[in-house]
């Protein structure tokens, strides 16, 4: 069977929803969000809040700008997340003494304790995919490569 290249496919075929890789990624993302919503309910976190906590559990205290870089979020999106996490008592924000424009965030004692309660979450999500660990790693690698290529083309 002969392999088709992008140039071999008529433009009209690309306008079909079923041929859109972005839609497949969007649909998968929405499905993940549903699984995470259930898995995170007992922790009292939304998926974006969980991502912030993952970064803070891994790195400790960080400038807000670096948290945004890890999560690919701008400050307009990240600031409200941090405010809500601070209101729940999981995160503490502080202005840098060296530079008042710089704000850092770190997990509080309650935020660090939450990590223990969240330990089983990644396994639950992985099991929900029905994929093997090897396939999960391969898919993650492919998606990271795709992101790099898309960033370079933008």
In short:
The protein is mainly alpha-helical. It has helices spanning 11-14, 21-40, 47-59, 64-71, 75-87, 109-118, 121-129, 133-153, and strands at 62-63, 91-95, 103-107. A three-stranded antiparallel beta sheet has the order 1-3-2.
Q: Overview of this structure, please?
A:
The protein is mainly alpha-helical and 154 residues long. The chain folds into 2 domains: 26-118, Arc Repressor Mutant, subunit A; 120-154. 64% of the residues lie in helices and 8% in strands. It has helices spanning 11-14, 21-40, 47-59, 64-71, 75-87, 109-118, 121-129, 133-153; strands at residues 62-63, 91-95, 103-107. It has a 3-stranded antiparallel β-sheet. A hairpin with a 7-residue loop joins strand 2 and strand 3 (103-107). The longest helix is centred in the C-terminal third of the chain and has 21 residues, at 133-153. The chain is globular, with a radius of gyration of 19 Å. The chain starts with 10 loop residues before the first helix and ends with a helix. The mean pLDDT is 93.
What would you call the shape?
A: globular
**At the fourth CATH level, what is the homologous superfamily of the largest domain?**
Winged helix-like DNA-binding domain superfamily/Winged helix DNA-binding domain
Mean pLDDT metric: 93
H-E order: HHHEHHEEHHH
From the alpha carbons, calculate the radius of gyration and give it in angstroms. Answer: 19 Å
Please name the CATH architecture of the largest domain.
Orthogonal Bundle
Q: How many distinct folded domains?
A: 2
Protein name: MarR family transcriptional regulator
Keywords: Cytoplasm, DNA-binding, Transcription, Transcription regulation
Subcellular location: Cytoplasm
InterPro entries: HTH_MarR-typ (IPR000835), MarR/SlyA-like (IPR039422), Transc_reg_Sar_Rot_HTH (IPR055166), WH-like_DNA-bd_sf (IPR036388), WH_DNA-bd_sf (IPR036390)
């Amino acid at each position: 069977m002969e392999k088709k290249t992008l140039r071999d496919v008529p433009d009209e075929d690309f306008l079909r929803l079923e041929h859109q890789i972005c839609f497949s990624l969007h649909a998968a993302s929405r499905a993940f969000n549903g699984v995470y919503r259930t898995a995170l309910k007992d922790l009292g976190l939304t998926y974006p809040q969980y991502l912030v906590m993952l970064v803070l559990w891994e790195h400790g205290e960080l400038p807000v700008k670096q948290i945004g870089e890890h999560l690919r979020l701008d400050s307009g999106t990240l600031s409200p997340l941090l405010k809500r996490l601070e209101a729940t008592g999981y995160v503490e924000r502080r202005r840098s003494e060296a530079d008042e424009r710089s704000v850092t965030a770190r997990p509080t004692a309650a935020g660090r304790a939450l990590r223990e309660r969240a330990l089983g979450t990644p396994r639950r999500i992985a099991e929900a995919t029905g994929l093997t660990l090897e396939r999960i790693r391969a898919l993650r690698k492919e998606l990271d490569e795709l992101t790099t290529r898309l960033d370079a083309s933008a």
